[in-house]
Target: GntR family transcriptional regulator
Amino acid sequence: MDADTQPPDIGLSLDGQGPLFKQIERAVRSEILSGRWPSGHRVPSEHSLMEAFSTTRATVSKALSKLTEAGLLERRRRHGTRVASTTESHAVLGFLDVRKDIESKGRAYSYKVLRKREVAAGAQTSSWLAVEVGTPILILTAAHCGFGKPEVLEERYISLQAAPEASMTDFEKEMPNTWLLARLPCTRLRHTIRAEAATAPQATLLGVAEQSPLLVSLRQTWADEMPVTWVKLSYPGAQNEFVGEFNPLESLSA
Model:
């Protein structure tokens, strides 16, 4: 490349953490899962990525191969690489978009971390049986707010074995779901919905009566069989409902 020639601007930025192929993989994954690169979007060529990041074809190919194996990309010889057509549905399956729900009601959204601490998996994380005792865990207690008022409470455990950088991350700037999905593929998800009675602290934060019903969403995710996160979302029961729809006739007429 000539001294006066600038590398191509491909709209990707690296985070500077770890091997270069992992940085490229995370950057591309983030564009896909954020929706900025929709299904069918043409990914920059290997040559463009090589020039943009001053690296080798092997490094770029390794990053794209990992994303292809995860089902996020489709690579075809002489046709280039595109975002897989199934990416959108896989990315959102089982993930409740609290921010979207709050903003759809016309309220300004914010995410507040109320408490953040590190523990070893054990009695304090007994709800998450998938992790081995002694595994370092980051515990987040947070609130999803509309106009600054808590509307949904979140308790989250993140395995620092799977995502060690989480301990240094400001999750009020980038929400945990987005941050984790940009770095680790969700290869397995378990989602449970149940009812609970509001504790005194929950009732105070949500502005409801103690022992009033809460709708609770429990979610666990894995990446390549490694437990990544356990999340509990608590909604005031009288003000919320979970709705799902299945229409088998649609698949027959498609």
